[in-house]
Specification:
Layout: E1 4-8, H1 12-23, E2 27-31, H2 35-42, H3 53-63, E3 66-69, E4 80-83, H4 99-108, E5 117-120, H5 128-139, E6 144-147, H6 157-162, E7 167-170, H7 174-183, H8 185-188, E8 194-197, H9 199-230, H10 234-242, H11 263-277, H12 284-307, E9 316-320, H13 335-345, E10 349-353, H14 358-364, E11 369-371, H15 374-378, E12 383-386, H16 391-394, H17 398-402, E13 409-412, H18 419-424, E14 428-431
Helix pairs in contact: 1-3, 9-10, 9-11, 9-12, 11-12, 12-13
The protein binds uridine-5'-diphosphate-xylopyranose (UDX).
Uridine-5'-diphosphate-xylopyranose (UDX) binds at residues 150-154, 210, 213, 217, 251-253, 255, 257-260, 262-263, 324-325.
Length: 436
């Protein structure tokens, strides 16, 4: 008999997982405490922007296999329960806030049927899974718990779920592994590497992967600082070192650094957990990774000040991009918005444009000015800051934009625009990590 699945928490991770599991043929119920989110999803509509997931969700709703509810009792029918709730940075420190993970496991415990498996997908501090397993042993001894970290990238969520580059399962026994093999059978059949680990290793794999990625980005941004000081070009340097297969060329894009709902909070939570474990020295370098990352934002502000004036009160700055990366409407810990807000706090008049992120940005920074069109954002600007590399910004015509601005001054915070094209149209261009 085919397994029935439940997905607890229908945000980015959960909504994607629910729709993808339904597309594999499973009956899936998604549960979320937010009635508005459940209502939207039940109509086949996404509460956020993610390429390809909208059409998949709408199609899966039509099959009748996928449903959403606010009622935790709905898990009673399911055999495998994926915990996909958020683990944000806690308000009073670096550690992860585990409130939602703990409360969702407690909420489903009374309804778990005999032999069911709870599977954590959320990113948690190492040791959490064992704690939850112990808790279940008391509240729902008929159920077991495993951990199956998720590596999906925003903008590629469906692809990363259905064709991941590996599947990692943390289990305490063979039975839990067998159940997960049954769930992922079509994905395994594609040749996806399958890694069985114990619970703590599975939890660590996720934070280790994100720490490595963050380190790679901060490494190249540190090189950008040195290139600026020494008169070099970080994009050429990145290309040259990237040809060494031991280094690899991906995630060496220098610029204003990483943001989003994962990388920044994951490295901080990892440091906090290591400290609790007495292994803080091992992760001391992550503090520097975080510092380099935040410094990249500051460097943009320094360039604006050095070029325009220390006192920015008379200047208008157009910020292109609000989201933490393109093809997403996510503005969590967005470097672009952070820079925009800091420049506004310094007295500049700042207008922000983004193809998808204006509404979420307005919720976080209601005092910033927003423009629906690039031409409106740049009108009368003394500087244009290219801070999120949306494709449409690469298609801008510098001559046309040049007629709208007050000063032809561009900072490319992502090293993605064609500098020569802009320079030939009479622009002063500053690209991070490039001196010429
Ligand atoms: C990340 C991980 O990639 C994913 O595996 C994990 O599951 C969740 O966290 P995501 O947050 O979607 O995914 O974004 P990612 O594509 O990793 O980019 C993170 C940030 O790094 C973005 O702000 C991006 O602009 C920045 N970045 C990325 C760089 O500045 N330079 C690069 O070379 C690559």
């Amino acid at each position: 008999m085919t397994l029935k699945l439940s997905v607890i928490g229908c945000g980015y991770l959960g909504a994607t997982h629910a729709a993808c599991m339904s597309s594999l043929g499973f009956e899936v119920v998604g549960i979320d405490t937010d009635p508005h989110k459940v209502e939207l999803l039940s109509r086949g509509e996404l509460p956020f922007y993610e390429p390809g997931l909208d059409t998949l969700l709408a199609a899966e709703m039509k099959t009748g296999r996928l449903s959403f509810t606010t009622d935790f009792a709905a898990v009673a029918d399911a055999d495998v329960h994926f915990i996909c709730v958020g683990t944000p940075q806690s308000k009073d420190g670096l550690a992860a806030d585990l409130t939602y993970v703990k409360s969702s496991v407690a909420a489903i415990a009374p309804f778990l049927k005999d032999g069911s498996l709870v599977v954590g997908k959320s990113t948690v501090p190492v040791g959490t899974a064992q704690g939850l397993r112990d808790q279940l042993a008391e509240t729902a001894p008929q159920a077991d718990l495993a951990w199956n970290p998720e590596f999906l990238r925003e903008g590629f969520a469906v692809e990363d779920t259905l064709t991941p580059n590996r599947l990692v399962v943390g289990v305490a026994n063979d039975r839990a592994e067998e159940i997960l093999k049954e769930v992922y059978e079509p994905v395994i059949a594609l040749g996806t590497p399958w890694i069985r680990a114990d619970l703590p290793t599975a939890e660590l794999v996720k934070v280790a992967a994100n720490s490595f990625l963050a380190t790679k980005i901060s490494f190249i941004n540190a090189m950008a600082e040195v290139c600026e000081a020494a008169g070099g070009d970080v994009t050429v340097l990145a290309k040259a070192i990237g040809y060494d297969p031991r280094i690899g060329s991906r995630f060496l894009q220098a610029g204003i650094g990483f943001g989003g709902g994962c990388l920044p909070k994951d490295i901080r939570a990892f440091m906090a957990r290591a400290q609790e474990l007495g292994a803080d020295q091992a992760l001391e370098f992550l503090r520097e990774i975080d510092n380099i990352n935040l410094r990249a934002r500051q460097r943009v502000i320094d360039v604006v000040r050095a070029d325009l004036s220390e006192d920015l009160t008379q200047y208008k700055i157009a910020v292109l991009g609000a989201t933490f990366k393109p093809d997403s409407d996510d503005v969590r810990d967005s470097p672009a918005l952070d820079i925009a807000a800091q420049l506004q706090a310094a007295g500049a008049q700042v207008v922000v444009h983004d193809p998808k992120g204006i509404e979420p940005a307005r919720k976080r920074f209601p005092n910033l000015d927003y423009a629906e069109k690039v031409v409106d954002a740049v009108k009368g600007a003394d500087a244009i800051l290219h801070l999120t590399e949306w494709k449409e910004y690469r298609e801008l015509d510098p001559s046309v934009i040049g007629q709208l601005v007050k000063q032809k001054f561009l900072i490319d915070g992502r090293n993605m625009l064609d500098r020569n094209l802009w320079r030939n149209a009479g622009w002063r261009v500053h690209a991070l990590g490039r001196t010429d």
